[in-house]
Design goal:
269 residues, alpha/beta, Rossmann fold, two-stranded antiparallel ribbon, 7 helices, 11 strands
């Protein structure tokens, strides 16, 4: 991380979350010529740690200087960031670097790049002195970002553990990218890992059954847990945020599951 450029307090965003401070947008210089904006919200009391929440889809959130989201507000991790704060965690939602952005989307392969991993490492290093441990959590295509970062990063930039929900984990289809097909060195992931799916996920890129096969690839991780949720409702396209893929109707249950796992795997200080 090359340094914090700016921090802007947002009077409007996040103010309605009980037990939380006002949300901020922070701009981090992550590597030469690149910076990213990050939405950061902190609990009112002492933090249990930090969670870096990686959206799925193309991931180009278009966070403005005043913290507005140009895309991705309904994404499961983006929409539940306040629940993580209420649970006692600093919640950070990063945008992607300008070099990866394209009008209405992003470069297809950026999630498995070294540059993207460094960007996420800068967010982790920024949060670590404030509220350790720092966990990296991704949903859907965010699984690629999370696995790539965990495989590449070290030292203060490496997450203390990773969580994937409805992840695009395995490639059994020729028209899809997955963590298996794009991330080099999955065996280098050496942190606790949680894989969460929905038993009725109808998105063809993220069946819950893929988690069992993917777990076998993480030979360097000290533990890999697989959990499956059921229930909720499904609306709209099967790979979108309001389908079972996005745990519609299960936001609190999913956050409870993840934060309980984080507490169980928090390293001793």
């Amino acid at each position: 991380m090359q340094g914090l450029l700016t921090g802007l307090v947002l009077a409007a965003l996040g103010a309605g979350v009980a037990g939380a401070q006002t949300e901020e947008v922070v701009t981090l210089a992550t590597r030469p010529g690149q910076s990213i904006r990050v939405l950061v919200q902190r609990p009112a009391g002492p933090a249990l740690g930090s969670v870096v929440l990686i959206a799925g889809g193309h991931g180009n959130l278009e966070i403005s200087a005043d913290g507005r989201l140009g895309w991705g507000a309904p994404n499961q991790l983006v929409r539940t960031r306040g629940l993580y704060v209420v649970a006692g965690y600093v919640a950070a939602v990063p945008d992607i670097a300008a070099e990866f952005k394209r009008p209405g989307g992003a470069d297809e392969g950026y999630r498995s790049s070294a540059g993207h991993a460094r960007d996420l490492g800068a967010v982790i290093a920024y949060l670590r002195p404030q509220a350790p441990p720092v966990w990296l959590i991704g949903t859907s295509r965010g699984a690629i970002s999370v696995a790539n970062a965990a495989a590449r990063l070290s030292g203060a930039e490496r997450p203390d553990g990773i969580v994937v929900t409805s992840g695009t984990l395995m490639s059994s289809r020729s028209d899809s990218q997955s963590a298996q097909s794009t991330v080099r060195g999955l065996n280098r992931i050496a942190v606790p890992t949680l894989l969460v799916g929905h038993e009725l996920d109808q998105c063809r890129f993220s069946p819950a059954s893929d988690a069992v096969a993917f777990r076998k690839l993480l030979t360097g991780a000290p533990r890999v847990d697989v959990k499956t949720l059921s229930g909720g409702i499904s609306e709209g396209p099967p790979c979108e945020s309001w389908a079972y893929h996005g745990f519609n109707g299960l936001d609190q249950e999913l956050v409870n599951l993840v934060t309980a796992w984080l507490k169980t795997n928090t390293p001793s200080r």
